Amino acid sequence: MVALLVWALAHVPAAALNGFHNAALVLFSVMILWRLVAAAGLTPVLSRIGEPVFWPTYTILCPLYREANVAPDLIAALDHLDYPGLMHQVSKVTPLSRSILE
């Protein structure tokens, strides 16, 4: 078998390389098809996880200094968080609230 491949490369290199190329293309296509068939039966990860029993509480600190022009957009974006409402707290940090954090 190896001798035949060496002979083909030595005497008809264009045809041999073309044959190798076509064999690799077919092998690659079969492997992609195999992976697609295997992946078709999977369900998305998030649908398998489900709702957690306990949602951790977290705090979002939003430092604002001379940010009056973006504050309404920031507040609107924070209001649309996809998380239970009572489980997160949003605090704005301004120069006047500095003494509270220290």
Write the layout of secondary structure elements.
Elements: H1 2-11, H2 13-40, H3 45-49, E1 58-63, H4 71-79, E2 88-93, H5 98-101
Parallel strand pairs: 1-2
Helix pairs in contact: 1-2
Describe the structure.
This protein is mainly α and 102 residues long. The protein has two domains: 39 residues; 46 residues, no CATH class. Helices cover 55% and strands 12% of the residues. Strands 1-2 form a two-stranded parallel sheet. α1 packs across α2. The longest helix is centred in the first third of the chain and has 28 residues. The chain is elongated, with a radius of gyration of 31 Å.
Give a brief outline of the structure.
The protein has 102 residues and is mostly helical.
Q: Largest sheet, order of strands side by side?
A: 1-2
Q: How is the main sheet built?
A: 2 strands, parallel
The proportion of residues in beta strands is: 5-15%
Which structural class should the secondary elements be placed in? Answer: mainly alpha
Order of helices and strands: HHHEHEH
Helix content range: 40-55%
Based on CA atoms alone, the radius of gyration comes out at 31 Å
- Tell me the number of strands: 2
- Model regions low in confidence, pLDDT < 50 over at least 5 residues: none
Report the average pLDDT across residues. 79
- Global outline: elongated
Number of domain units:
2
How far the N terminus sits from the C terminus, by CA atoms, comes to 79 Å
Secondary structure tally, helices: 5
Task: Supply the key terms.
102 residues, 2 domains, mainly alpha
